[in-house]
Each structure stands twice: as C-alpha cells, then as structure tokens.
Amino acid sequence: MFRRKAANNSAPDPRRTGVAGPAPSEMLDPTRVLTELLARPSAEGILENALAYASTLLGDHVNGYAIVRRGQDKVAAVFGYPRSLIGTVLSGPWAAMRPRILSEGSSELYESNASEVHKVLDAAGMREVPLSLVVPISDRGRTLGALVLDRTSSDPITPMQQEAVARWATAVAPILGMLDARDDWQQAARQISGAVVEAIESQEFDGVGHAAAVAENSLRIGRAMGLSARELEELWFAATLHDLGKIHGEQGHAQVGANFLQNVPHLSEAQKAIRNHHERWDGQGEPDKLSGEDIPLYARILAVANAYVRTGEVERVHAQSGKGLDPRVVAALDKALEKAAVS
Q1: 33: number of CA atoms within 13 Å, CB side?
Q2: pLDDT tens for residues 259-302?
Q3: Are strands 3-4 and 72-79 parallel, antiparallel or unpaired?
Q4: Which residues pair with 73 in a beta bridge?
Q5: From 70, 99, 261, 342, which residue has the greatest number of CB atoms within 10 Å?
C-alpha cells in the first residue's frame, strides 16, 4: 500500500471519476506513453479489419483469410470462414508473393497441402471456391504474409478491384510490420510498465517495490489456482498497475487506475481487477459494493496478495478469510507459500 509523502489535496480528473481534481495537462507523461503502448492492437485484429475492408472493395459474396509468415505460413485471421481455421499451417498460392487471380479457385490450395489438411479446409467450406485473389503483404522488402479473398459466386474480380485491394494491402503492411515482433513488444510492455510504476513510487509514495511484490505474490496465487499463461500475463499487468491511479491522490484511485486501461481491450480483465481490488468478500468494500464471486477473480487475487504484502503475516490474512477476502484465494496463497518454502 502506498502512503503519500506529503499532503496533497489534489483528487482525480473529474472527467474520469466525477470528482474535482487536476487538469489532464498535469497527468504524468509516462502514464500516457504506457497507455498508448498497452493499447497497441494485435496482428490478428489488424488483419481481421484488413480482410473486412478488402471484402467491401470486391463487393458481395467474399470470404477471406490472412496468412502470416513466421517460420511457417499460418492462418492468422479470417473473414466469413470459421475461426477454427486460425492457427492452421498452410502452403498455398501466396508462396510466389505476387498478386494473383486464381481462376480455378481453391484447387491450387488443395494441391499444395496434405490430405489431413483437406479435412480442415472442407470443414470450412473451401473446396468449391470458384475464384480467388491473392495479395501479398510486404514491408520494406520483408515478406510478412498475404490476404486471400475467395469469391463465393460466379462474379468476376475486375482489374480495378484487384488494384484497390493491392493498394489496401500496401497500406496495412507497415502496421503489421510494426506488430510482427510481438514477443519483443510484450517484453517491452512489461519493462516499461514496471519502470513507470517504480518512477511513480519513488517520486510520490513511500513503499518502493510494493507493486512488484504484489505482482510476484499474485502470480504465485494464480499458478496455485491453475491459471493459464495468458491469464497470468494479464494478472501481472493488473497487479503491477493496481495503484497507478494514486498519481492523482488516494481518493478514487482505483477508478482512475482502471481508466488508464479503458482503451486497452486485451487487458479488459486487468481493468476490472484494478477497479475492484478494494471490494470485500462481505460486500462492504468499494467502489461497487460487490460481494463474493461477483468480485472479478483477478481483483480477489490482488486483494489477498496486497494484504499479504502489506501485513507480512499469513495469520493476519487468515483473519480476513470469509470477511474481506475470498477463502479460496487465501487457501491458494497458503499452497503457494508452502511450495515456495520447499523449493
């Protein structure tokens, strides 16, 4: 828990919480940088939108899929086809990496892949495609993938339509190139998140390292509860950023912290956790007076980890089990601490 070093009567931005407070220009610049970084879209989202718009350029009766080249050629996004195709490794007519109209539709796709892949393609309804357009996606000489648009009717694809889709793919390519190193971006996002929080802790609050300690214990609890790697990743962001709103002062800090993530859809559960990490199991918390399992799981985990870091005593955490804290999460803390003790 952070404590103010000096009196500060400022409160959160009124446009964020409805309480009087400092103007947006007074917000610490690193938080804006952090929010923009975390809001970076995914390659899948970019390609889904690219396919959707490309289909409008061809008119009606179009399905499509996007291929990305990362060691193997894989389906990264679909339009009109089932999402079960995503992740499928394919060989196909995009290998030449030049715009092509395939007058025999999907026949080359089937010829390029093994029979077991045919079952996946058949399930998606791709065998009878009469006509396809393949448009490569390249950025600064680097091949990133391709858009494949399948006509589902006998209508032709005109040269003007082909050129329009090619121009659109050229516009999309730099964005996809920026997202291509997603693993690097995730690591950078974690590093910058930690650095911003440490800077705020050291400048504004006592208790440097609090967020890191809460994050470490939250992940221990999450693992003990069987959370997946993706869930643990989002839990880490929730724990690391849970007190970020205190840059505006204590009042309403949970809501302010949550609002920093309002434009980061892939961290929506982290946003809920930050908003509700001061709720209580018995319904006497804030800001929404939620109780029991109506409190988001990550928020319940944060509450237990926060209590343990703040008090440093498991017995005091046990005393709040079933009152302020979720008994199941408290039990997971015990399990995590036991595992840490023997490792």
Answers
A1: 13
A2: 888 878 778 999 999 999 999 999 999 999 999 999 999 999 99
A3: unpaired
A4: 69
A5: 261
- Beta-carbon contacts of 261 under 8 Å, excluding residues fewer than 6 positions away, are 35, 38, 241, 267, 268, 270, 271, 274
In whole angstroms, what is the distance from residue 23 CA to residue 292 CA? 36
Of 184 and 99, which is predicted with more confidence? 99
pLDDT at 4: 35
Please list the residues that pair with 142 across neighbouring strands: 139
Q: What is the largest CA-CA distance in the chain?
A: 74
Q: How far apart are CA 110 and CA 115, in angstroms?
A: 8
Query: Other CB atoms closer than 10 Å to residue 261's CB: what's the count?
Result: 26
**What is the Cα–Cα distance from 283 to 300, expressed in whole angstroms?**
12
Q: What is the pLDDT of residue 11?
A: 36
Q: Which residue is it, tokens 């309403």? A: 252
